[in-house]
Amino acid sequence: MLQLVVGLLGLVFSIRGRSKGVSGLMVGAFVVMLVTTAAGIAWQFLSVEVPSWSASGNLSADEIRLIFMGVGIPLDAAALLSWLLVALAVLKSGRLPRQPGLAPVNYPMAAQPGFPGTQPGHPQPVPPAQQPPGTQH
């Protein structure tokens, strides 16, 4: 039940955060988490009927174990996948974008190779003009 609450809150906050640059990967991770959690809850309600499955004589204990493994392993794998996607989205959100964007007006530019960097509000010193050798004033 806690995972259902985490999934719902995560989905709501990640959808809200899409306008602020939250990765679509995060939204997808919480969708996977919610679907997996809902399927797990549904499976728990269905598994309550196991005694009637075995009492009907249609399924043996080995067949029931096989059903539980066949359902449990994909559910656990999907839950693990959702948490891995959340972790990947969190790691990805901490990185700077790889594509350069447009800089705002009056944004300080990076120093060119071979020149010292400037600080905002301080003019860059102008080097003296180069004079040909042999001509001095």
What is the string of helix and strand elements? Answer: HHHH
What percentage of residues falls in helices of 4 or more residues? Answer: 55-70%
**In whole angstroms, how far apart are the ends?**
86 Å
SS-based class: mainly alpha
Mean pLDDT: 76
- The gross shape turns out to be rod-shaped
- Beta-strand content: under 5%
How many E strands? Answer: 0
- Specify Rg, calculated over alpha carbons: 30 Å
Q: What profile does the largest beta sheet have?
A: none
Number of H/I helices: 4
Question: How is the topology of this model organized?
Answer:
Layout: H1 2-17, H2 24-47, H3 50-55, H4 61-93
Helix pairs in contact: 1-2, 2-4
Task: Write out key terms for the chains shown.
single chain; 137 residues; mainly alpha; 4 helices; 0% strand
Describe it for me?
This protein is mainly α. 58% of the residues lie in helices and 0% in strands. The chain is built from four helices and no strands. The protein has helices spanning 2-17, 24-47, 50-55, 61-93. Helix 1 (2-17) runs antiparallel to helix 2 (24-47). The protein is rod-shaped, with a radius of gyration of 30 Å. The protein starts with a helix and ends in a 44-residue tail after the last helix. The model has no long low-confidence stretch (mean pLDDT 76).
